[in-house]
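Duplicate of #3305? Posting structure anyway:
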């Protein structure tokens, strides 16, 4: 009886795994169905979650010794790059088969690099610009956000969120930056895709780590997080889009920060220490998120060209069909990558973590 109850609990108690995949699906919907804003909001939700998780594992798992920092860096590389390189090779094949005119029409960033520097940027996911979204070609277009992730991983590994007062300083400075961009009426991209702008969501995640026990005393049941988060997350982009259509810009931009606060609450609630149950179902669902994120444009190209017959992302029924097919293709690819790429690599990551610290903390 106890085994059955444990199994049931594992399938109803979802945490960060479901949350990550939920955000990834919103990114895909934003790109393939051309839904405004929602992908932007999801990306910054990822940044907040990453800030929390990286602060958690650096302080609680790896530590700030040279060995701990090196092990953290190695595990980040092993977590991100092997699967990505497989997707990169697959995408190169798709571009060669379909032709650059087709792929760049569907997504302008998808065409083959022509210089060693362009290849290096695509291989490393480090796009050499303070606004990595502006760099082309990007064979996996969404990886511009991974440039920002890698930038803050490096800083967190060096101690950016080691202490509470330092994390507060980063938050205050980054908040000042965002306020300044609004006061100077700078472009929205300076708050969304600029590397410096990422300090705000990442520092919010760092503060959630330092105040995780404060959330412990005030968080509701974890499942309530999803009941509240799902309708609000869908509603905010719709409001922002409607306001922008009416020519009302600043309230629309304000939704961006309302969303950031909403994501912060969701991560804080999900971080509730007493409810950190290692759910097999949650881990299984969460493992789809990264593969969906890096591969969805490639999958959409295949679905759009070979199955549906559309040239560009759109809000029509055909666009919706491409979205569903792209998610299914990504899911199948994810299962293959897990077995033949991630599983062998995970053995190396686990061995590295065991040399450092307490079990059970690193889902990242």
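Output from current build:
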């Amino acid at each position: 009886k106890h085994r059955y109850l444990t199994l049931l609990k594992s399938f109803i108690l979802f945490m960060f795994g479901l949350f990550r995949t939920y955000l990834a699906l919103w990114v895909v919907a934003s790109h393939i169905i051309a839904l405004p804003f929602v992908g932007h909001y999801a990306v910054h939700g990822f940044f907040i979650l990453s800030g929390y998780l990286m602060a958690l594992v650096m302080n609680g798992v790896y530590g700030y010794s040279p060995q701990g920092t090196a092990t953290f860096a190695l595990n980040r590389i092993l977590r991100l790059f092997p699967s990505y390189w497989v997707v990169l090779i697959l995408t190169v094949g798709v571009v060669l088969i379909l032709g650059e005119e087709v792929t760049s029409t569907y997504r302008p960033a998808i065409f083959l690099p022509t210089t060693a520097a362009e290849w290096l940027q695509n291989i490393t996911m480090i796009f050499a610009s303070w606004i990595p979204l502006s760099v082309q070609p990007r064979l996996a277009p969404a990886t511009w956000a991974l440039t920002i992730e890698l930038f803050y991983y490096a800083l967190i590994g060096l101690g950016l969120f080691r202490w509470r007062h330092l994390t507060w300083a980063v938050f205050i400075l980054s908040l000042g930056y965002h306020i300044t961009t609004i006061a100077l009426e700078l472009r929205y991209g300076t708050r969304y895709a600029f590397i410096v702008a990422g300090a705000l969501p990442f520092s919010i995640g760092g503060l959630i780590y330092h105040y995780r026990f404060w959330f412990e005393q005030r968080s509701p049941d974890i499942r309530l997080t999803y009941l509240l988060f799902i309708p609000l997350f869908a509603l905010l982009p719709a409001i922002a889009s409607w306001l922008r259509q009416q020519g009302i810009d600043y309230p629309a931009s304000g939704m961006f920060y309302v969303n950031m606060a909403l994501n912060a609450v969701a991560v804080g609630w999900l971080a509730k220490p007493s409810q950190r149950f290692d759910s097999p179902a949650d881990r299984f669902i969460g493992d789809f998120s990264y593969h969906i994120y890096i591969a969805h444009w490639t999958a959409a190209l295949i679905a759009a060209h070979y199955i549906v017959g559309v040239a560009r992302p759109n809000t029509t029924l055909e666009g919706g069909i491409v979205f569903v097919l792209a998610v299914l293709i990504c899911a199948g690819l994810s299962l293959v990558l897990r077995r033949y790429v991630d599983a062998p690599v995970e053995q190396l990551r686990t061995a590295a973590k065991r040399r450092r610290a307490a079990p059970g903390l690193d889902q990242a």
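Confirmed duplicate; merging threads. The chain has one domain: 21-354. Residues 21-354 form one domain.
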